[in-house]
Each structure stands twice: as C-alpha cells, then as structure tokens.
Amino acid sequence: MINFAKLGFIKKLSGSESTEVTIPSEIAQIRKISTKILALAGEHTKKESALFDIRLCIEEAVRNAIVHGNNSDHRKKVMIEYGVSSGSLYIIVEDQGKGFDYKTLPNPTHEKNILRNSGRGVHLILNLMDAVEFNERGNRIKMIKRLR
Amino acid sequence: MGLRIEMKNDLAICHIDGEIDINTSPDIKKSLDKLLSKKVVKIIINLTKVSYVDSSGLATLVEILKNMRSYGGKMKISNMSPKVKSLFEITKLDRLFDIVPDEQEAINTFA
C-alpha cells in the first residue's frame, strides 16, 4: 500500500480518487498500464505534448521498476497508483527491489557517459515531469504532471 | 513498426515507420546490423513516420552510431518531429548525432 501521508507535495492531491494497479514484472505490461493512465489523462487534456511526456515517463518508470528494481523476476510485482486532482496527474510506481540512490546515477549527458547504452530513463523523467520524488529506499517514484 | 531500406550507391536511407521503443528496438537493431555487417559507410535514418521514441530507442541509435564509427561509417538522422527532437536535446544526444531537418539535406551534405 502506498502511503500518501508521507508524500509532502502530494498532500494537496489527497482529495482525488486514485486507482491502484498491481502488475507482474513483464515487459508486455508496460504498454498496457501506460494506455490505462493515458486514457485518464486524455479526459483532462488534449495537449499532445503533455500526453507524450506522460506516456514516456510512465513507460520509463515502469520499465525501470521491472528490469532494474525487480530484476525481471516474474514473481515480483510492480504497484502503480495514479489519479487526477487539481488539474494534475500523479503517478506512483513502486517495485519490490532493494532500491537505488538516484542522486548517484551517472549523468547521461556528460561526455564520458554520452555513449552509454543505458541510463537516460530517469534523466528524461526528471526533465519532463513537473515534480518527481523518490522514497528514501529508492524503490518508489512519484511523478506529477500538470494537465492544464 | 516497419523499416524500409533504400540503397543509393554507397548510401542507405532507412525509413522507420512506427515507434522506436523497448518493444521495437531489437528488430530495428537487427535490421540495421545487417547494413553495418556490410560496412555501409553512409546511413540516413529518416524519422518522418516515427511518433514516439523511448530511452531504449535512443540507446539503440547510440549503439548503431558507435558500431558505425568503429569502421569509419557516418550516420545522419532526418525529419524528426519536434517532440522526438526534444528528447535528443534533453539527453544532449543532439550533440552526438548529425541531425538534419530533412532527407534531401542529409543527402546533399553526404555528397
């Protein structure tokens, strides 16, 4: 269960109705969950650019949860909670892994890392969402995108 | 996802149709690896019909570029939508890749 009370900046969204979904750690689930959340976002905005960002960030976060968090272990689950309140979409993605420290992730835009084959997902999320927060353990990401 | 490769002498123009993401990237890489195995030295990736790219797609393009560079090949990417281009800018890959507005300009600058 995701604890909203601990999420300082999400407190203001506490009046919203949220949806919780638990998925197995399978790549095929990524598109399914992004389609569900985009359907909700699409009821509140027609901005193609915002919908593009939302899809990308959901898919990056869920993929990270499946591949890096849960090590693609099908027995492990990914919990997703989302909703719209006060003109913003919020999405929380939590895996059952050990977590990671996003502050120590190599900056993928640095010259020494630019040719690396991975490491751009979190960077994209941090740049495309309006607010992003990780829990201390690093197995849960919270993302907010304004829809208007 | 579809991929059509048009050969013009020593130049390969690759038209990708669809999305370049975690699901389609392996197939795109496989198709382009065939070109790279023939040491094609000039490749244009035309993204006119690409509406979505994720970090797997970006990583695949980086990998192809690295492989091409290993034998002296050159790649240009053309016809990016503003949204796809913004992903290259955010990740600073716009500095790594030779990005040109359209295919004709890519051909001209290869000549």
Describe the protein's architecture and organization.
The complex is a heterodimer of chains A (148) and B (111). With 148 residues, chain A is of the alpha+beta class. In chain A, 30% of the residues lie in helices and 23% in strands. Chain A is built from 3 helices and 5 strands. Chain A has a 5-stranded antiparallel sheet with strand order 1-2-3-5-4, covered by helices on one side. In chain A, strand 4 (131-134) and strand 5 form a beta hairpin. Chains A and B meet through helix 2 and helix 3 of A and helix 2 and helix 3 of B.
Brief account:
The complex is a heterodimer of chains A (148) and B (111). Chain A has helices spanning 28-42, 48-69, 121-128; strands at residues 18-24, 77-85, 88-94, 131-134, 140-146. In chain A, helix 1 (28-42) runs antiparallel to helix 2 (48-69).
Report the biggest beta sheet of chain B as strand number plus sense, adding barrel if it closes: 5 strands, mixed
Largest sheet of chain A: 5 strands, antiparallel
* Unreliable segments of 5+ consecutive residues of chain A: 1-12
Main sheet of chain A: which strands, in order across? Answer: 1-2-3-5-4
Structural classification of chain B: alpha/beta
Identify the biggest protein-protein contact and residues per side: A-B, 24 and 20 residues
Strand tally of chain A, please? 5
Task: Give the N-to-C terminal Cα separation of chain A.
Answer: 29 Å
Percent in helix of chain A: 25-40%
Q: Describe the oligomeric state of these chains in a short phrase.
A: heterodimer
Please state the average pLDDT score of chain A.
90
User: From N to C, what is the helix and strand string of chain A?
Assistant: EHHEEHEE
Tell me the series of helices and strands of chain B, N- to C-terminal. EEHEHEHEH
Helix count of chain B equals 4
Mean pLDDT across all residues of chain B, rounded?
96
Work out the helicity level of chain B: 40-55%
How many strands appear in the DSSP assignment of chain B?
A: 5
Spatial order of the strands in the main sheet of chain B? 1-2-3-4-5
The computed structural class of chain A is alpha+beta
